[in-house]
Structure formats: C-alpha cells, structure tokens
Request: fold
Amino acid sequence: MLRVEPIPAFQDNYIWAIDDGHAAAVVDPGDAAPVLAYLARTGLVLGAIVITHHHADHQGGVADLLAAYPAGPDGEPTPVIGPAAERIGHRTRAVREGDEVELKAPALRLRVLEVPGHTAGHIAYTGDLPGIGPVVFCGDTMFASGCGRLFEGTPAQMLASLDKLAALPAETRVYCAHEYTRSNVRFARAVEPDNAAL
Reply:
C-alpha cells in the first residue's frame, strides 16, 4: 500500500510525497528544506523526484535533494523524471505523452499526459496506486475551481488539457501543486453570483 502526503512549501505550494513506508518519491519539489524535514521526521528515504514543468517553484529544490540523497535505497542514482519539452535541471529521464514511468522505490507505475497551457511542455502523471486508486498529479494545470495561468500556452491548449484531465475516471484523486481554492471560488462567485454550487 502507498500513501500520498502533502508537504507545504513557500506560501501556497504543495510538494507531494508518495511513500511505501520506507521510501518516498516527491512530485514538484520547488524547495528542498521542507522535503528534507519531512524525510527526517518520517524516517523515509528519497527514492525518486518527479517534475511536471520547469518553473523554479516546482524544481528549485532538486539540486539540494540530490546532494542529500545522491542514490536511492537500491544504491542507484536517484532518478529525476521530467517533461522532455522543457529544460529540467538534473533530469535523468525525459518523458512524453503516453510514456510509462516505473519507479523502484517506492514501487509504482505512472503514465504521462501532456497538458500544455500553463507552460508549453507541461505534463501530468496519472496512475492507479495500491491502496489509493486512480490519481493524477497535475502540477499547475488544474486546481479546485480553477486552472493555471497561461504563461506560454494558448487558451485552446489549456482547454484541451483540461478536457484530457476531465476524461480521467470520475473517482480520480487530483493532486494539484498550489492551494488556490479560496481565491478561485471568490473570483468565480464574482463572475457567477447566482451559481448555487459556488
């Protein structure tokens, strides 16, 4: 069985830790300090680093994490997986739409979806995690009641990316990389004041 835990960073970032009780893969570690504190507190070791896009608040902690954990629990160099279409520091494997990512520690398999819009080469990772079910780590593409800003992509690309995420099974757990819910709902209520769901 696996567990997914948020590691808060900066003002509103989520770094996600996927662990099996021994090793953890971290998704979008923009800052190493909270990850290192989390690993020390839980007694876990770093097994892999997974990146969704090139922004510093999603990969800025990679160098310091690799300095602390140059090798995973299997003695192999700690893998750093990230989008092929973007510049990702220390990346050991570049991935594209449809690629399968198989991690050893923790043992899990993820599939890559290309979801451009926030950045040109943004990707998401989806899979069916033991003990959790279907998941998606969507970085800055989708949030509760909102989507990411269009820094490099077009509205058409973002819509296609959101449609791709919407096509995932309804029970999919969404792990986004920022906590924007309150501000997104506040904006949505200003635009749709009669929306009872908001």
Summary: The domain at 3-191 is CATH 3.60.15.10 (Metallo-beta-lactamase; Chain A). The two ends are 35 Å apart (CA to CA). Residues 50 and 81 are 5 Å apart (CA to CA). The chain has a mean pLDDT of 96.
